[in-house]
Amino acid sequence: MSQNNKLTTRLVHEGEHPERNRVGAPTVMPIVSSATYVQTNAEGIDWGFANVNESFTYIRRGNPTVQALETAVASAEETTGAIATATGMAAMFLAIQTALYTPSTKKLSKRILCSRDVFGSTFVMLKDVFALQGYETILCDITDLDEVKRVMHEQQPDVLIVEAISNPMLKVSDIPTLTAMTHEIGGRMIVDATITTPVLRRMVYDGVDFIMHSATKYLNGHGDIAAGVVAVNDPELLKSAQKFSRLIGLNLAPYEARMVSRGMKTLTLRMRQQCENANAVAAWLAQQPAIKSVFHPSLPNHPQHELCKRLFDGKFGAVVSFELADVSRAAVFGLMDRCKIITPTTSIGDIYTLMTYPAISSHRDIAPDERARQGITDGLVRLSVGIEDAEDIIADLAQALA
Ligand SMILES: *Cc1c(COP(=O)(O)O)cnc(C)c1O
Fold first, then answer.
1. If you take atom 5 of ligand 1, which residue's CA is the nearest one?
2. Structural domain spans, the chain
3. Rounded CA gap, 392 and 402, in Å?
4. Which of 261, 280, 327, 396 is the most buried (most CB within 10 A)?
């Protein structure tokens, strides 16, 4: 598949079975469920181990179905390569590990700069895993560019971690500016692009070093597997990430890889519908007296509304958070229990509309004062808007709020 084709076309065709010239070969990449692979002779085995990207030897070092997904992701993100991992957290771990432990010209400060608004488990991983390796994490408000610049120059962090659009507060990161700032001090840039997906922006053109996704969410899109991916453009960083992944065993399994490959074929269609639905739901919520505030970049009063429109192809993502006027657990529990179509469950990015209560799920392991600083109050509810008819989603919210 040529990179000259548009993204939607590449998403449909990339990563399928390459044996176009063998009569009767499957059209679709099969799930190759084999831990080992034969070679014609011992020379071949020797060659296979020396050339891991060209052949297959052992499942942890590579698998055809997983490689097909990696090809599809790299094609979508327009990077040199991509690595598929068992979960989104494994992908984030791999990105951070590679950013910190691949030789660079920068004198290491052993400091990580991270947006205050990252996914709860990412925050806990920095605090409970990388802290043990001697890395100090500094949190910042990623929307205050002057402050980020000041901290960046003072602390000389080795890496900056941000979410393109954050979960659950929907803050928008100025990716091109933040990447330039990070590279100016010789640091490496990791973007969690789970909410934006390659449909909203290909960040390789901003120079982002690691574009990471929880593929459990939009890339797969159907809520039936867990997976992660990291797209990397720099060949040295890619090689280093592949080495770590194969050694630590972060690799995705073949069945899950096939599911994500299939999900990605409809990514453009789903994102279009979900983003449109989210705009409608956010606009409706903003007019309800029972709702104190609505967080979605489509709303003209969102502080990064213009930035979001400019960076993300006029789209605003499909996650909408809102705060009830009655800021209490009981009020949120009541709302969740009354929903009929909307599924009260964790996660985002499914075809179904999902409702989550961050205080008891994604952010429950974060101390209440830090949670409050992030704006995650006991009245905050997160919606991942699905592909249903927007009118039905709104009607369900209306009856649940009544
Ligand atoms: C879900 C999620 C993750 C973690 O992904 P898993 O697949 O659950 O491991 C990371 N970042 C964001 C933004 C997420 O929504």
1. 88
2. 7-30+63-264, 268-401
3. 15
4. 261
- 135, 111 in Cβ contact below 8 A? yes
Task: List, in sequence order, every beta strand (DSSP E) within 42-201.
Answer: 81-85, 111-115, 136-140, 159-163, 188-192
Residue 198, preceding bond cis, omega within 30 degrees?
no
pLDDT in tens, 48-78: 888 888 889 999 999 999 999 999 999 999 9
Pick the CATH number of 7-30+63-264 from 3.30.70.920, 3.40.190.10, 3.40.640.10, 2.30.30.100: 3.40.640.10
pLDDT in tens, 353-397: 999 999 888 888 788 888 888 888 889 999 999 999 999 999 999
CA pair distance 111, 134, nearest whole angstrom: 9
Mutate which of 212, 217, 345, 354 to test ligand 1's pocket (most atoms within 8 Å of Cβ)? 217
CATH topology of domain 268-401: Aspartate Aminotransferase, domain 1 (3.90.1150)
Best mutation site among 114, 123, 167, 218 for ligand 1 pocket (most ligand atoms within 8 Å of CB): 167
d(CA 56, CA 36): 8
